[in-house]
Amino acid sequence: MRIAELLSFARQAGVDRLDAQLLVGHLLNRQRTWLLAHDDQALTEAQTTQLRQQLQQRAAGWPLAYLLGEREFCGLALQVTPDVLVPRPETELLVEWALERLAAAPQDSLVDLGTGSGAIALAVQHRRPATAVTASDASAAALRVAEANGRRHGLSVEWLHGDWWAPLHGRRYGLAVSNPPYVAGDDPHLAALTHEPRSALTPEGDGLAALRRIVEGAPEHLLPGAWLLLEHGHDQADAVRTLLAARGFARAQTRPDLAGLPRCTGAVWHPVD
Ligand code: GLN
Questions:
Q1: pTM of this prediction?
Q2: Are 111 and 144 contained in the same domain?
Q3: Quick check: CB of 178 below 6 Å from ligand 1?
Q4: 273 pLDDT higher than 90
Q5: Nearest protein Cα to ligand 1, atom 1
Q6: Element (H, E) at 150
Q7: Which pLDDT tens digit goes with each residue over 23-45?
Q8: DSSP of 92-143, one letter per residue?
Q9: For the chain, how many structural domains are there in total?
Q10: 153 CB under 6 A from ligand 1?
Q11: Which pLDDT tens digit goes with each residue over 113-160?
Q12: Quick one: 97 and 183 in the same domain?
């Protein structure tokens, strides 16, 4: 098949034109501008078969990042597989907040709970090489992806296998961050996200179970003056602030995402000032 024919196959299948060009360009290792100038070029049979299959997967709702095998997050090209949530642009705002807090943290250390692809931990380590970064995840398969991403970028994060705080017994940090599963179990939104690991998206129930566990365990693992920064659902800010206050955190702040919705809440453990 020629490139032009394949792109018209993609259009008929209902695939976004840019996505189709990115998939073809990825397989051929060419830029989009090259594709446009060479769309009469014939693809091999194997290339055609593979691309038709990928375009059909895309049409069926597979995230583009899984088909390309990577996604950019905070300027880092990260490997992503169906074992990890695709990093979302709004989570970059959590990284920005973490970087702001680290500058004033009681100790230059950070823990990222439920790291998935390693996105948050690696972005922080990349921007602040002197910070000691630890990350945990309950999924061994996700940790393998995170570790591979660390190697790919030459970043040394300590990866620990286990649920939330479980692998961090006896350790304290100057900053803790997490983008845990927070979608409610009956949220209709999940229907469009069936290709991503369900356990990374929802703790089931009201969507707050993971956030509760993280807040509950935090005081044992934070240094005085350390902040806990959490991503959450657009309608969970009040609930998260209540959890933090009940556990003894102070100075809660909530920040909006790219759509202006309240998306991250943080508070300080034992304010020192
Ligand atoms: N923000 C994601 C979504 O709604 C959910 C991520 C998460 O649960 N941590 O698609």
A1: 0.95
A2: yes
A3: no
A4: no
A5: 88
A6: helix 140-152
A7: 999 999 999 999 989 999 999 99
A8: HHHHHHHHHHHTT-SSSEEEEES-TTTHHHHHHHHH-TTSEEEEEES-HHHH
A9: 2
A10: no
A11: 999 999 999 999 999 999 999 999 999 999 999 999 999 999 999 999
A12: yes
